[in-house]
Write a structure and sequence with these properties.
Length: about 300
């Protein structure tokens, strides 16, 4: 491998070919000729000393080395594009943009009124919301795709590159339909007994699933859900019709909902937090700082 520094533009060309798996599509994205794209890839392969694409007359695919390279190049490209975008936008919040990463649940039950306040105060700022699990949302932030993440804490994606600011606490609760499981309404349920019932939870890759699973494991029980979904609202709906016992955040529940009850447990699940997450290795946009201030003021009341 050549020890000289490799031109960053070569990595940019590599990124667009890797994402489109097409030399012609990459040339359109980059506004350069297809032959220039091909030559850049050849130059990069020579500098690296490895083939990064497998090419045939009909297809382009990444080699194993190309896959490894993409894992490093993609976050850097996202950060670069985010920086370019920030420089082009006005810093006085008369124009600009705000990108917030948050789960559907946090958007609906926590963020909606604060997004409304921000939009009224800064009507010319374009607001976008990236949806995903709390783990995915922190990664969106780290990749530069989001200006701010609002996520469940603790969270396996937190790192030294992020600053975590707790906004509010909540509890995870198990709920069931009154007509489906009346025998559970007046008792405290042992953790070991949960596997005797159909348990419904968020998908296994979520911060919630890990937190609840770890809680049961610490108490000597391996919880085995029979249903795993992406939506807390759907978990609540299924609990109402008696499909099973659902684990959801308490802030998702309505006091007027008479069809459900909360199951009491012999061991209490410790509260968690909803947190705002900022990057530490890049400047936080003024739009994000202003939205964070609105969140903090709203949750001090």
């Amino acid at each position: 491998m050549n020890n000289t520094n490799i031109d960053f533009e070569l990595y940019k060309v590599f990124y667009y070919v890797a994402k489109t798996l097409s030399f012609s599509e990459a040339s359109k994205e980059l506004y350069i000729s297809q032959s220039a794209v091909s030559q850049s890839v050849k130059t990069l392969e020579k500098e690296l000393g490895h083939k990064i694409f497998t090419r045939s007359t009909k297809s382009v695919s990444l080699t194993d080395e190309g896959e490894v390279l993409l894992n490093y190049v993609e976050p850097a490209i996202h950060l670069m594009l985010a920086g370019e975008k920030e420089i082009k936008e006005s810093a006085d919040l008369m124009e600009g943009s705000l990108s917030v990463a948050a789960s559907d649940t946090i958007c609906r039950y926590i963020l909606k009124p604060y997004l409304k306040i921000f939009h009224r105060k800064y009507p010319n700022v374009r607001i976008s919301v990236l949806n995903g699990t709390s783990v995915a949302c922190v990664r969106f932030l780290q990749e530069g795709r989001a200006d701010l993440a609002i996520a469940n804490s603790p969270n396996g994606a937190f790192s030294r590159d992020t600053k975590v600011i707790d906004l509010l606490t909540f509890k995870d609760v198990f709920i069931a339909g009154k007509t489906a499981f009346p025998e559970l309404m007046k008792m405290k349920m042992a953790l070991a007994d949960f596997n005797r019932y159909p348990i419904m939870m968020l998908e296994s890759g979520s911060a919630t699933a890990k937190y609840i699973s770890d809680f049961f494991k610490k108490n000597g029980v391996v919880l085995t859900p029979s249903v795993e979904l992406e939506s807390n609202d759907l978990l609540i709906d299924l609990a109402k019709i008696g499909i099973g016992i659902a684990c959801v955040p308490d802030f998702c529940l309505s006091k007027s909902d008479v069809e459900l009850f909360t199951i009491k447990t012999e061991r209490e699940i410790q509260p968690r937090s909803i947190a705002a997450v900022k990057p530490l290795k890049r400047k936080v946009k003024p739009e994000a700082e202003n939205f964070l201030q609105i969140l903090l003021e709203g949750n001090r009341r």
